[in-house]
Structures are given as structure tokens and as C-alpha cells.
Amino acid sequence: MGTLPAFVRWLLVASAVLLTAASVNHLFNLGFFMNIRLLEIHYLYVMLLLTLPLVFLVFPCSKSDPYGSTRWWDYFLALLALITCAFFAYYGRSVVNKGWDFAAPLHAVIASFAFWFLLLVAARRTGGWMLFGVILVFSIYPMVASYAPGPIQGFQRTPVETAIFHAMSGESVLGIPMRSFVNLVVGFMIFGVAMQHTGAGPFFIDIAFAALGHVRGGPAKVGVLTSGLTGSMSGSVITNVLTTGSITIPAMKKVGFRPNYAAGIEAAASTGAVLMPPIMGATAFVMATFLATDYTNIVIAAVLPSLFYFFGLFAQIDGYSARNSLKGVPRADLPRIGRVLREGWYFLAVFGLLIWMLLYLKREAIAPFYATALLLILNQLLSKSRWGRKELMNFLIATGRLFVELVAILAAVGLIVGGLAVTGMSGTISNDLLFIAGGNTFLLLLLGAMTSFILGMGMTVTAAYVILAVSLAPALIAGGLDPIGVHLFILYWSMLSYITPPVALAAFAAAAIAQAKPFASAFEAMKLGTIIYIIPFFFVLDPAFTLQAGPLESLLTVLRASIGILLICAGIQGYLLGVGRIGSGLMGTIARILLGVSGLVFALPSHASLAIPILAAVGTGIGLAALAIALVMFSNTQEPAR
């Protein structure tokens, strides 16, 4: 892999600095622009001006080209993008005042077609051919909408009408995905990169090893904890696997974990980490914009599902470790928690400030800027790894590259929304889906889960989410389901392709580090991540799982779900906490199945308060039957001391 040329690195630095300055001016209302009414459209085009041209200089035309290589056509496309974005930024007043998104002069039409073309090329370079194909189909759909089959037939538009709508309407490229970026995402992306470049990753790894490294299966539990902490910052599953996995996977293998299993643990943990509050990746911010709600509400709703998932991972790892007599790392070989906290306490302080501003002050747009400022100040005053010129440049280059990639994808994904909006399909497709499902909400959920998974296999999570947020989510909400639960359901199922064959990118990346078989690692990740396949159906059907119910109901849900997850994990791993190992054979298999069914019954969602004790009683009965079989058939091997 090559490196970027020096002038491109400087362009990324300039892009990061100017984009951050523009964002601060916009969000803090510093008043560098006088006409507030036109500020947003100018602001959106300026953001594109600062990022879109760099896509063609940073991301190679072909995977066979070395990273950072540029050809003459890359420079041409970059120049064309610069001119096109500058054109729209300059004529932003005319776009609004003269209604160019409905009828535009010839020079604006030409610029619109160029803009459309550039976004498609940018999507292909940053998101791959699958994303390009889906966006292409949706973006040209308005030109053939009247020829589509009945359920997906819409109002047809001419090529000119389609192009100017995509380029200048507030419902396409300048729509929800881009608005979520400029209003929410920028600060959190800067904060995530700053955390990584100031050493937060090694700090979280050290503190996890100090706290959990000595217990049975310690390195695996450390891998889950560190992935949860660092993955929330990076927002990228693969980045999380490559950073934390390079340390935790060798440690797992050293204490006896099979390579396939170690890779599966890291893949499952890294996938769930991107769903962990307070920073859940760019898609969560797009979700907040779709729902027209505070990002804080998304964070609160996502807390229990993510904690249940990681609780299930810990339970499975503990059962596997006990069943296979896997020990932890000797305390003498572990860092001391006191020393780790003394050296990196300010990372926790910064996270505390961020969470306080999010949950108490409810200032989600500006909270990450304050947190980043505090982090950089403390890093320079207290850290042994203070930044110099080189570290600052690396931080700005990484930030600029992240902005370039994310804007290219979000702007191109806006073409999907625009294609449905201009044809009227975004308002009618939900009714068509309800009709196809025969009004059966659960069947629609199953279809939605399958569609989310399939789309997630071939494109970015954000793109898959946006398609279904426009088409599927309104149908599910019309069926009586909670809006936040529905959107989280789509997000969760769009993530599952990272650990599910045939794609399973997270498992394959982890397998490369573990020197394991890719598909074997993927199947281990699937088994470990069993809870993530189940929990979306729970929280979409029961608002208590997303803390949308009363305190008592939410508390009962936590208790029931925790017991249920423990029993499900015991059935999968063949080890019941406090009882011991459940052997193989027919009766052992029956006992494990009964444990899993008992756990499922315990955790089932319930809207009726009277149904909760019934579910608990049935679950207890099935669980006692499984326990009786285990005690009769096998010796009561007590849990080994830690």
C-alpha cells in the first residue's frame, strides 16, 4: 500500500481545518455570514466543495492501483468537482429564491448533470461497486418510474427534472444524510479521531487487562471490553478489529483459545461495539435526523440493547472458558490498574464531560467540540505523548480523510432518498409493503430483517439504513411499533452481515490476525453473537427494552432479559453458572435445548403486565426441567474458583 503524495496530504489538512472552522461557525452561530436564511444551503455546498474534489485524489480508481496513486483523469475529476461545487455554492441564493430545483437555466442544468455523475463516481470509489449499483438504480428510477411494476410505480420525471432535483433539492443530495453530517456528525468524528491519536485505545486496552485479564478467559473478556470502548469511538467495525484485535487475539491464543474462536470473539465484539453509546457511528446521527429527535434519545434507547448484547458475549466466553478450563493471565504479567488510571484518567474525564453534556445539558451538536478541546488541552499538559508538529499533521490528515470518505458516501446516499421523493414513492411504498405483508406486522419484521441483512452485505450500513428508513420504517410504525425501536431494528440487522457468511468482513479480518480459517471464524462469531440476532425483535416489540416504558416495567425487563440471556448462553455453551458443565449425548442435548427455550421464554417481550409473571413461570418451569436433567445425568461439577 502506497502513501499519499505530500500535496494531497496538505490538501487534506486544509480540508479538515476549513471544514471544522465552517462547522464551528455554523453550530456556535458565530455570525460570519449575515443572511441566515441562505446559510444552510451555502454551508452544505461549501462542505461538498471542501471534500468531494479530494475523493478523486485520495481514493484510487481501481483496487489494483496503489493507495494514493493518481492519474490524469483523477486530476480532471477533482477539478470538475471543485468547479461544480463552487458553482452551486456561488448560486445558492438563486437556487432558493428562483426555485432552480424545479426549473433551472441551462448552465445550472449542465452543472447538475456533472454533479450527479461525480457523486456516482465518488460512491463507487469509496463504497464499492455494490453501493454504486444500488445508488445508480435509485437515482435514475424517476426517469422510468411509470414503467415499473404496480407496487413500485411512481410519477415519471424527465432527465433534466431528475438532475436538477438531485443537485438542488433539499430532499436529495442536500437532504437528511448530508444535513445530519453538518449538524451532528462533524464534531463526533473529530472527537473519535482525537481519542485514537491521543492514545485512548492503548489506555482502554491496559485498563481492561488490569481489571479482567486475571479471570478465567481473561484475554477474551478484555477483547470484548476494549472493543466496546474503542469501537464506539471509531464507528468502524473493521478498524476496530484491526486495532484491538492485533493485541487481544494473540493474548487469547496464548491462554488456550482456539484461533477460530479467538477471531470469532473479536469479530462479534467489534460488530456490537459500533452500536454502543455514546458514539454509535454516522448512521445513528442520520437516524436522529430521520426521526426529528434529539440524538440523546437515540443514545438512551440504544443503551439496554447494546448492554444485553455484550452481557451475552461475556456469558458465552465465561461458559466456554469454564468448560475448557481456560485460565487468565498471571497478575504479575498485567498492568496495575492504579498506574493505568494515573496516566490516563483524563480520557475518562473527557468521556464524562461528553456524556454530561449529552444527557444533562442536551447539547449534542456542540458537546463533542468541548470534549475534544478538553482532551487536547489535557493531553498537552499531562500526557507523556504530547503532540508535536508531526502528530498534529497526522491527526489532521486522518480527520480530513474521514470527512472526505463520509461526505462522499452520505451525499451519494442522498440520491436514493431523492429518487423516491421526486416520484412520490417515499409516501406510498410503506402502504404497499403493508399490503404485501397482509397487514401482519411480524411478517413485515421478518421481511425487513432479511432485506436489511441482504442490503448490509453489499453496501455501507448507512446506505442500507437510509433505504429502509424511507421504505420499510413508515410501514412498521404504521403497524403500531415504536419509531425509535423500528429504526434501531433496521440498524442492528444492517450490521449483521459483518459476522454472518458469506460476507462476514469482520470475521475474515479477525481470522487474518488469528491465522485461522475465515469461514470457521465467521460461524464462531455467529454463535457468539446469537443474542444480536434475537434482541432486535425484542426491543422493536417491547418499548421497555429501549427505555421507552415506565421505570418498573423497564426494571422487570432488565431482570427477565438478563436471566433469559444467561440461560440461552448456558444452552449454547453447555455450561450453567453455579451448576457446572452439561455434557454431550442425547440427554445433555435435550437439557441444553430446554435451557435455551427457557431463556427465550424469560426474555420474550410483553406489553401486558399480567403476561410477565406468566412468562417468568413458564420459563422457570422449563429451566427447572433442564436443570433436573443436568443434575441427574451428570455430576454436579461446581464452578471452579477464579
Can you characterise this structure?
Helices cover 73% and strands 1% of the residues. It is mainly α and 642 residues long. The chain folds into 3 domains: 6-177, no CATH class; 184-403, no CATH class; 551-642. Strands 1-2 form a two-stranded antiparallel ribbon. Strand 1 and strand 2 form a beta hairpin. Helix 9 (218-234) runs antiparallel to helix 13 (295-323), helix 11 (259-273) runs antiparallel to helix 13 (295-323) and helix 11 (259-273) crosses helix 23 (518-528). The radius of gyration is 26 Å and the shape is globular.
Helix % is: over 70%
Q: Tally of extended strands?
A: 2
Count of DSSP helices?
A: 27
Q: What is the overall pLDDT average?
A: 83
Give me the Rg, rounded: 26 Å
Biggest β-sheet description: 2 strands, antiparallel
Q: Output the structural class.
A: mainly alpha
- The domain tally reads 3
Give helix and strand order, one letter per element, not per position: HHHHHHHHHHHHHHHHHHHHHHHHHEEHH
Termini separation: 45 Å
Spatial sequence of strands, sheet with the most strands: 1-2
Tertiary shape:
globular
Oligomeric state, counting identical vs distinct chains: single chain
Key structural traits:
cell membrane; TRAP C4-dicarboxylate transport system permease DctM subunit domain-containing protein; 642 residues; membrane; mainly alpha; two-stranded antiparallel sheet; 3 domains; disordered C terminus; transport
